[in-house]
Each structure stands twice: as structure tokens, then as C-alpha cells.
Amino acid sequence: MERNSSTMALHTNSKASFEFEAYMAMKAKKINKMLDEAIPLRHPLKLNEAMRYSLLAGGKRVRPILCIASCELEAGDESLAMPIACAIEMIRTASLIHDDLPCMDNDDLRRGKPRNHKVFGESTAVLAGDAFLSFAFEHIACNTNNVSPDRLVRIFAELSSAIGSKGIVAGQFVDIESEGKVVSLKELEYIHVHKTAKLLEACVVCGVIIGGGNDNDIEKVRIYARFIGLLFQVVDDILDVTKSSVELGKTAGKGLVSNKAAYPKVMGIDEAKNFAYHLMNQVVQQLACFDTAKAAPLYHLAYCIANRQN
After folding, report:
1. DSSP characters for 43-92?
2. Are 263 and 238 in contact (CB under 8 A)?
3. Of 131, 148, 188, 310, which has the highest C-beta tally within 10 A?
């Protein structure tokens, strides 16, 4: 989106030397290695194959990288955040597996590959998602070192809130209940704050907590993540009606077919693009109080979300 690009240009001149693609590739490589080691092929074999199939299916690893970048924002070491970052990717994977089921969004492709339930069956897909939701917390508890118990408790509380009836589950429920109905902009925002933004908030808040940040920094990054969560969904909705299935790597136009609430449907394409521009400005404002160099990954991640093409 051109307006987003020009907006970021005003704020990224001092960050131009930051090698974002190299940073993302380096972090993703480390995360992928840890995820591969976390879920070995063991009995019951089919269950673990199903878990590995979705967990290791690729992607940019935006959520775990957000967690690590937020820890580094507070001068925390990557190693402190890695267990929680990997756990967040497990939780994200669980939400995708469940979201793809016929009783939910009922889609066949993700990143150009058949969805988990298409390969392993619905019952195995449900159980694979369930397994991730519990194992994620076990992974944090067993692999986090040099972090105080009170900070770990805050992290567990933040994550559990983000994925339950105050977070992802609430958003998914209202999303399903809204199919075929006229939805207001306020109701649409509720859906996507809970379905998308809450987990992104947990990513950055947990990163700042584990990095030793204070409550003011936590609030700043929480608002930042809420805006990029909404930004992600606005862009996603726009792409859904402007790109092909081949370009997206998933079924295009799915929202229109299922008559689900979406920003272009509620606001129109042009207003949805303007809203994305507004959200990007808000993102930049939330990061203004942080050290420019340390915040560079968070600026660029927001820019990447605003300008993604699939």
C-alpha cells in the first residue's frame, strides 16, 4: 500500500542501515531448529507427525520473532526469550489447525499445502492442536532459565489470557456467530482484537517481561501489538478480495463466499486502505519512546505486515 510505504519512509531513514531480511532469516533459522528439536517423532507416531507437519510448515515466524525482538528491546538476551518464542509458535499452530477444521473456517490450503485435517483426519487434527496448547506451557516451564519466578508467572498469565475466552477463543466464537449477519465496525474490531491481536500482544508483552522491562514499556508495546494485529487483519481482508489463490497460497475470496465480516465489506476497499494507513501511523507513535536501533526490528516488522502481498 503506497500510503503506508511513504509513511514509513518518514520514520525509517535512521533505520535504513538495519538489515531486516538478514535479521528475520537468522532468527527464523534458530527458531526452526528449536521447534524441530522440541517435537521429535515418537509414540504415538501419527499424532507427532501431525504436530510436526503444521509446526514445521514454514512461514516467516513473525510471532516468535516479535517476542525475541521485544526482549532485545530491553537489552535482554535472545536465549532468555527463545523458549517462550517457540511456545508462542506452538500456540499459533494450534489455533491454525483448529481454525482450518470444517466446523470452523473449513479451508483446504495453507501456504499452498493441504491443511492438517486433510492429511491426517479431523480427529487427529483436533488432538494435535490440543497437544500443542498444553505442551507450549510445559516447554516454557522446562526450558526457561535465569528468569525470576514472578516474571514467569506474569508470562503464564499473559499467554493463557491471550488464548482463552478472553482472547483467541472469544474472537473465533464471535467471528463464527457473525457469519451472514450485518456487523458494525466496533463488532469487527472486537473479533480481530481477540482473534488476531491478543496473541501478538502476548508476544511483545512476554518479550518485554522476560527482558526485564517496566510497566510503562509493557503498555507501549501492548498498544503497538494491538495496532499491528488490526493492521494485519485489514491487509489480510484486502488481499482476500484483490489477490488470487495462487498468489496467496490459500483460497482467495473465502470471506465473500462464507459471508463473513471483513473490513472491505464493512468499510469499502478505499476506506480499508485508509484505515491501514492510520494504523501504521499509530504503530510508529508507540515506538517513538524507545531506542531507535533496538526498536528497528519492531518498526520493520510492522512495515512488513503493512506491505505484505500474501
Report:
1. SSHHHHHHHHHHHTS----HHHHHHHHHHHHTT--HHHHHHHHHHHHHHH
2. yes
3. 188
User: By the 8 A CB rule, do 283 and 224 touch?
Assistant: yes
How far apart, in Å, are the Cα atoms of 50 and each of 95, 168, 200, 233, 259?
Answer: 14, 22, 25, 27, 30
Which residue shows C-alpha cell 512476554? 206
Q: Is the dihedral of CA 93, 234, 85, 167 positive or negative?
A: negative
Rounded (5°) CA angle 108-52-109: 10
Average pLDDT over residues 220-239: 95
Neighbouring C-beta atoms of residue 45, cutoff 10 Å: 9
Identify the pLDDT of residue 244. 58
Across 81-96, average pLDDT: 97
Between CA 125 and CA 282 the distance in angstroms is: 38
Q: Match 492438517 to its residue by C-alpha cell.
A: 116
Record the pTM: 0.89
Pairwise pLDDT comparison (12 vs 29), residue with the higher score: 29
